Amino acid sequence: MSAAEFTTAIADPYRLGHRGPNLARGHGGGGPATKRVIVGYGFWLFLLSDIIIFACLFATYAVLADATAGGPKARDIFELDRVAWETACLLASSFLCGLATIAVAQRNQILTQAALVATGLTGLAFILLESSEFAALHAQGFGPTRSAFLTGFFTLVGCHGVHVTAGLLWLGTMMAQFYAKGFRPDIGRRFLCFSMFLHFLDVVWVAIFSLVYLVGTRL
Amino acid sequence: MTMEADRHGLEHEEDDKGGASDEHSAHVGTYVLGLALATLLTIASFWVAKTHLIYDPGIPMALATLAVAQMGIHLVFFLHLTTAPDNTNNILALAFGLLIVGLVIFGSVWIMGHLNHNLMPMPQLMQMQR
């Protein structure tokens, strides 16, 4: 091994498609990583731990999906039209949050606030649709106490709904902070975490609408 | 002391320049492309759930595949997960997270499926307890 190759092996031990010495920041060659990268990494670790919680709830639901105790099966209660609208709302919310990210990068207060309001309204529409679904199920006597299947269903989907609700509260505080404190670097990092949170919730919803609702209607 | 001061100075300078901006991928085109691909995959999923063209037992696998594809789209276009050097740690953490998620889900389904299979059917169990 020549000296140059040795240096490369030290600087880029994982060889993730990058040849030559790695001079990127945070990899030894280029000095410490930026605060923004470190904050993003920390929040990413939180999101991954959150996804493990969701994995546990998914596993619970999958195990209990057949335990209907004489109550309704998945295909008897799921309404795909409503699920399609919920999916559209959350996807739009995620996209509008992306537009807000661009507006923040341009430090445009009006665009930022407008994109965040739109993000919040689509998110609120999602929550209202989901609440109406839960309320309708409960009114029919198919609440979480009816069967193990419904317990698993309400726990999994409800946990996601609670996350979205918390995200909406966080959205309100982000709008207030951009308005009151402007585009300071620390506020920018908080917004990075918020946008990651919202996009992550959309990823979880993809799993829910595919594996709970769509698969449920065909079993 | 001076080195620490230098480092602080560097950090401030850098934060003032790019602290609030997403310098890598803040382009409208990225998000529009991500939205278009995610919409296509969503429509495909709902079509698969309603169609009778696909062999019935294969539908859960088709839906799972579409879901994984769409999650990938979200990770790349919305969460900006790339192979860039400053993303290496994120990728490795994601790989570990996926390992845990896989163990939890497949392990639970596997074990509980076998337990269900080996359990005596409920009416017989009731009879034995009399």
Structure description:
The complex is a heterodimer of chains A (219) and B (130). Chain A is an all-alpha fold. Chain A is 77% helix and 0% strand. The longest helix of chain A is centred in the last third of the chain and has 34 residues, at 148-181. The mean pLDDT of chain A is 90. Chain B is mainly α. Chain B has 2 domains: 26-80; 87-130. In chain B, helix 2 (28-50) packs antiparallel against helix 3 (59-78). Residues 1-24 of chain B have low confidence and may be disordered. Chains A and B meet through helix 2, helix 4 and helix 7 of A and helix 1, helix 2, helix 3 and helix 4 of B.
Give a short synopsis of this structure:
Chain A has 7 helices and no strands. With 219 residues, chain A is mainly alpha-helical.
Using brief descriptors, characterize the structure shown:
heterodimer; A: 219 residues; mainly alpha; Four Helix Bundle (Hemerythrin (Met), subunit A); 2 domains; B: 130 residues; 5 helices; 0% strand; flat; disordered N terminus
CATH superfamily of the largest domain in chain A: Cytochrome c oxidase, subunit III, four-helix bundle
- The helix-and-strand class of chain B reads mainly alpha
Radius of gyration of chain B using CA atoms only: 25 Å
CATH level 1 class label of the largest domain in chain A = Mainly Alpha
Largest beta sheet of chain A, briefly? none
Work out the strand percent of chain B. Answer: under 5%
How many beta-strand runs of chain A?
Answer: 0
Average pLDDT of chain A: 90
Fold blueprint:
The complex is a heterodimer of chains A (219) and B (130).
Chain A lengths: L2 H9 L23 H30 L9 H4 L2 H26 L3 H31 L8 H34 L3 H34 L1
Helix pairs in contact in A: 2-6, 2-7, 4-5, 4-7, 5-6, 6-7
Chain B lengths: L1 H17 L9 H23 L8 H20 L9 H31 L3 H8 L1
Helix pairs in contact in B: 2-3
